[in-house]
Amino acid sequence: MAIERTFSMIKPDATRRNLTGAITKMLEDAGLSVVASKRVWMSRREAEGFYAVHKERPFFGELVDTMTSGPTVVQVLQGENAIAKNREVMGATNPESADEGTIRKTHALSIGENSVHGSDAPETAAAEIAYWFSDTEIVG
After folding, report:
1. Active-site residues (predicted)?
2. Any known ligand binding at 104?
3. What CATH number is given to the structural domain containing 94?
């Protein structure tokens, strides 16, 4: 199995409810290591840039509003098949469809306030990590 890195974000709905530690523990219990982490409050420009791939979608404005409504925790996770493992631990985007024991089933409020984000492919992970972290901030 390949050791890889992926990007993970704990969204404002979760940080407001003081779930950073609980969510990080679920990721670590699944065998992922946090090799970079910081708490940021996204500006509108940062949120629009990060989610630019969704710019033409009808939910873009609401997404940007949600992501700028409070602090987020951005992280780099490392482990065997980290991208797939993180997505498995996160669960389905819609918490009603998420498997028991996943982050979204346990903590998400709704499909729009689903507590976490994670990269879906190696290329996405590389771009998302580079958006928030310099090489010197990733240690592990």
Report:
1. 117 (pros-phosphohistidine intermediate)
2. yes
3. 3.30.70.141
